[in-house]
Amino acid sequence: MKMPRSNKVNIVKDSKYVRTTFSLENGSMYVCRIYSRFWGRTVFIDIENAERTKSSSVKVSRSIYESFTADQINMIIVYRAKRLEAQPYDDQPNQIKFIQFLIPLKYREEITGDLSEMIYEMKAKGMKKWAIAVIIYWQLFYICYAALFFKLKEITGNASEGAKEKKEVSK
Amino acid sequence: MDNIKLNRKEIAILGILIGEDCYGYELVKKAGEKGETLMLGGLYNIMKSLTKKELVESYWGDDSKGRGGSRRRYYKITGKGENAFTTARKEWIRLLNMNTNPGFSL
Q1: Which of B72, B73, B87, B61 is nearest to B2 (CA)?
Q2: Which end is more exposed in chain B, N or C (fewer Cβ atoms within 10 Å of the end residue's Cβ)?
Q3: What are the pLDDT digits (tens) for A105-124?
Q4: In 3D, which of A93, A161, A151 has the Cα closest to residue B44?
Q5: A155 or B55, which is more confident?
Q6: Chain A residues with CB inside 8 Å of B68's CB?
Q7: Which among A112, A155, A156 is the nearest to B68, CB-wise?
């Protein structure tokens, strides 16, 4: 497939959903998606690199978006892409920040780091966003289950022995 | 020496840690490669239990790519852990041999 080799992003303003691929001067490829949500009131402009390791999103109201010309939208997208290009990966924000409160405090840093690394690897493999979300929520659910019902305690011991001990104590 | 009881997953994790120090997610991946499916929640439980039994100790590493600024917690096997692993592995091998060679013929 031939990829465009220019800074220009082809924006069709009238369509509801736009997906376009473009490259910067240094040759790195970026994908841009423009779509509307909330009954068409808000327009989202998502920019992501081809490896899917860096992404940025712009949210504007429909009226503001419609006041822009196609060239202005192009400028915004290219500016965002250049800013992403300059950003080292370590500066990427913590992606599970808004659900961190579910994780036990003692393990928070470790678990957050491990889950972030998991997200990073899955994105690099090119997995769909919804699949990543399902896996991460499933992992989080299991962590919460372990924390709530076992207080992250030992659950691997010999159950029959424990029962025997309990019986002896009761006698 | 105390007879420390270990289950299959604990033995697998100790086996991985004998080679090198690992952090949580790395342990899950390595266990998966060896055919032992682990989830992060389960792993932290197991690690806590192993730490409590003094078979494993942990230390903080540095933050690296893709961790949202969080540090890695590395787990390291102790001398007691190595002894427990050797004993447990011998016991498992003995049990497996018992299963395959029942010692009588029908």
Answers
A1: B87
A2: C
A3: 888 888 888 888 888 888 88
A4: A151
A5: B55
A6: 92-97, 112-113, 116
A7: A112
Q: The tokens 């992250």 sit on which residue?
A: A152
Q: If you count them, how many residues does chain B have?
A: 106
Task: Let me know: does A57 contact A45? Beta carbons within 8 Å.
Answer: yes
- How would DSSP label each residue in A10-21? ---TTSS-EEEE
Percent of chain A with pLDDT over 90: 2
Q: Please state the φ and ψ torsions of residue A27, each to the nearest 5 degrees.
A: 95, -5
Kindly list the residues from chain B whose CB atom is less than 8 angstroms away from the CB atom of residue A119.
66
With beta carbons less than 8 A apart as the criterion, state whether B73 and A110 touch: yes
Please choose, from the candidates B80, B89, B38, the residue with its C-alpha nearest in 3D space to the C-alpha of residue B57.
Answer: B80
Q: Chain B interface residues facing chain A, Cβ-Cβ under 8 Å?
A: 5, 7, 9-10, 23-25, 39-42, 44-46, 48-49, 52, 63, 65-73
